[in-house]
Amino acid sequence: VLLITFALKTRLNSFQQAFAVLYENPSITMSLFAIQDLKVRPDIVHEYPGPGVTPGATAIVIDNGSYHCRAGWASQEEPLLCFKNVLAKPRKDRNKKDAEAAAVPTVQIGNDIVNIEAVRFQLRTQFDRNVVTHLHVQEQILDYLFERMGVDADGSVPHPVLLTECVTNPNYSRMLMAELMFECYGIPGLSYGVDSLFSYGLNSGVGIPGLSYGVDSLFSYGLNS
Question: Is the pTM of this model over 0.70?
Answer without folding.
Answer: yes
